[in-house]
Amino acid sequence: MRLGSGSEADVYLYRQHVPNRKVAIKISKQRLDSQAANRLRSEADFMGRICTHPHILSIYGSGITATGHGYTVFEYAPGGNFKAFLEHDRLTADQMLTIGIDLASALFTAHRKGIIHRDIKPSNILINAQHMPMLADFGIAGTIYGGPGVGFTVAWAPPEVLANGGGGNEASDIYSLGATLLAMVTGQSPYEYAYADELGNSRGKERSERLQFIIMAKPLPAFHRPDIPAPVERVLHKAMSPAPEDRYFSALEFARDMQRAQLEMYGHTACTTIEGEADIPADVATNARLATTTTPATVESSRRSLPWTKPPVIALAALAAIVAIASGFLFLIAPHMDTTSDDRAAQVSGSGPGGKTSGRNNGNVPDSGVVAGSVPQVRGLSGAYNAAGTKATFSWTNPDPQDGDVYAWTIVGGTDESASSQTALTSSTSIDIAPSGEAHTCIQVSLIRADRRMSDTPAMACAIRP
């Protein structure tokens, strides 16, 4: 089944035989010359260095077919992408901040490895089976020190990239992420939204040229929308400052300011997922009584397991053990994936601006689409201390209760390594925990069916000591 088509490659949905799973395969339309083969290897190398992050699309393998066509095998994201989502829906500012903190964590992880994305936009933010936002399409990525990739998309590119005809750095990626996040609330890129009258009904190349001129010549205006509070607009404006030196110094700094704005306006904040960095900055943890995540009704952003790695799948073994499931890597399209899926409900189609492939799984599939037979994540996980600070109570709901359901929960984070390694089972949808001396207590919870199938991604929430 074809998922999408661009100027250089097609993307297909296949079912891999071993391990048995759906995958998305990007296959070049033409036989590859040496330069194109180098680009293919570059994309695979870039993705392989960073795709352990829970909000970066995984790559399973890459190679050249017997006929000289290049292919890359990716994690399949059945929820489509945010370009398709924005054609029929919007996020609230609160929901947008949660997604933004997720994506800024992923972007900082890439930047720390020396990788610049160069083309962040809604069509390159995919939605996986657990409704998590996934940064994808590093096909034009390059290293901070120079390398492949000069492309961009006008609506999401900062003025300096448009002036130079391509390229970019950490600051330009931060701009593009800010523009993408604003569109999740408004439905349009910032300058298309603010200067709609000047763009009029122009189409195609004419519209692109007008928009490019506006971005380079016009100021970024205030938006004055009641659904975007002033602290949130301030954060987005800083990320999209016309001058690169006025933007956030790093994607981590951007994430931290989003956490502060979310706490100020909504009384809670999402956690970052960055190796070696605190989930919640000290100033936020000090002022917050509760830190948990916001899950949009339409784009449910799955919460954390261990920071900086793909959330592990926990399984029962004699009702106690945790079994780590290792990712399989695919190096040949045939014979292991010689049949396409017949799951029409998962079909995604379409392409990005200019006919370019805009994501691995582009199209209009609702974000509610999941792989058949998957176990849902628990919902509404939250936690709070009692007034004395002697007990933390966590509760959640089961979106699809069935006979025999139980829940595996684990304390995560903190300095107590033994606590982080112990998993307990409960049939209840709430637990009480006697906390350690940490400033906050975080847990992850997974739903387990009677047949031992388990939700692919645990939910996570933190309670902050009063």
Automatic annotation (TrEMBL):
The chain crosses the membrane at residues 313-334. It holds the Pfam family Pkinase. Residues 1-263 form the Protein kinase domain. InterPro entries: Kinase-like_dom_sf (IPR011009), Prot_kinase_dom (IPR000719), Ser/Thr_kinase_AS (IPR008271). Keywords: ATP-binding, Kinase, Membrane, Nucleotide-binding, Serine/threonine-protein kinase, Transferase, Transmembrane, Transmembrane helix. Coiled coil: none annotated. The keyword Hydrolase does not apply. CDD domains: STKc_PknB_like. Its EC number is 2.7.11.1. One of its GO terms (molecular function) is ATP binding. This is non-specific serine/threonine protein kinase.
